[in-house]
Design goal:
single chain, 13 strands, 14% helix
Length: 188
């Protein structure tokens, strides 16, 4: 009897510890050294364009991942990644961020997509923070590096990015560090 009770206690302990591990997914990301927590609902949204982009007989689906976080009651951060992936390929993968486009140089989207199965368009990927109490707003685009999307099954994804967005005032960078996991909802 005592050994049965010990075995039952061990099983309950192991099953409970497994449950708590699944709830410890990272849900905070950093913008300019300040931590923002994903919204519990609609924290990560995938906006899917209804029209594919056609290039040399290949179709590319456009997905915009929108990551929304808050800090306290008054600070908000939104990060977006504008992703193109060849039709039939998984959204999961590593996306090289194209920053070939700026106000002085034009690179067509055909040239950017022509060499990759998946790519993130930098000039249409954005960062914005708003601090309501101090009325500070900061925004930028053209992130550097890569963004990685990992499928964890179902609608649960991990998004990894560690780099800088170009501040819209062009005098500084906005550092962003994220390694977050959450349920991705589909936008309209």
């Amino acid at each position: 009897m005592l050994s049965s009770l010990a075995m039952l206690t061990l099983l309950v302990t192991l099953s409970c510890s497994g449950d708590s591990d699944s709830n410890n997914s990272p849900t905070t990301f950093s913008v300019n050294g300040e931590n923002y927590t994903l919204l519990s609902s609609e924290g990560i949204v995938n906006l899917v364009s209804p029209n594919a982009y056609e290039l040399d007989g290949n179709s590319y689906n456009r997905n915009t991942f929108v990551i929304n976080g808050t800090k306290g009651l008054t600070d908000v951060a939104t990060v977006t990644f504008d992703l193109f992936v060849k039709n039939g390929e998984s959204i999961a993968g590593v996306y090289q961020i194209s920053t070939d486009q700026d106000e002085d140089t034009f690179t067509s989207i055909d040239n950017i997509l022509g060499s990759d199965v998946r790519v993130c368009i930098g000039w249409t990927s954005l960062i914005a923070t708003t601090k309501i109490a101090t009325q500070e707003i900061e925004s930028g685009n053209a992130p550097t590096g890569t963004v990685q999307i990992i499928s964890n099954g179902g609608n649960i994804y991990t998004i990894k990015f560690n780099g800088n967005f170009k501040n819209i005032n062009q005098t500084s960078n906005i550092p962003v560090n994220m390694d977050i996991t959450g349920t991705v909802s589909n936008g309209l």
